[in-house]
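Throughout our pipeline, every protein is held as a single compact record rather than as scattered files. Such a record has a labelled line for the sequence and another for the backbone structure tokens. The remainder of this section carries one protein's record, kept here as part of the documentation:
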Amino acid sequence: MTIRGRVYVLGDNIDTDQIIPAEYLSLVPTIPEEYRKLGSYALAGLARTPDQPPFVPPDGMTTPYTVIVAGKNFGCGSSREHAPIALGAAGTKAVVAESFARIFFRNCVATGELYPCETPTRLVGAFRTNEEVVLDLEANTLTNVTTGAVHALRPLGDAGPVIDA
């Protein structure tokens, strides 16, 4: 499977409160309207910086970013299935990170919302938000279309078919 789209770049220790703030946890993902709302609040807990566009545009329901590239310990914090669900509902297909909080990784697999892809090297500096990328889940590579650089990823192993189902 290949995922092509724009990338959103984040740093280390992005926690579940940043991914989906607690005030939105009352939304029920199995109700289609609430599922869409959950996506509109994805990464709403991030501190805004002048050089980083919002993940979901103001008054939008989805994100233009299909892949997130992050640093270490993505999805740390409290155990909430809403975190990968919110990112998936927003339209993101995969998160590529140096490492994941184990519970976030398991929630990605359990919900089937996102591919949690680990990289053996730090990629945060190799990408800029809005660049085009190609994630090849069979070849285990992430390509920066803008620069042409190809980065190796760790195989998803047995988690891949579970997420696909």
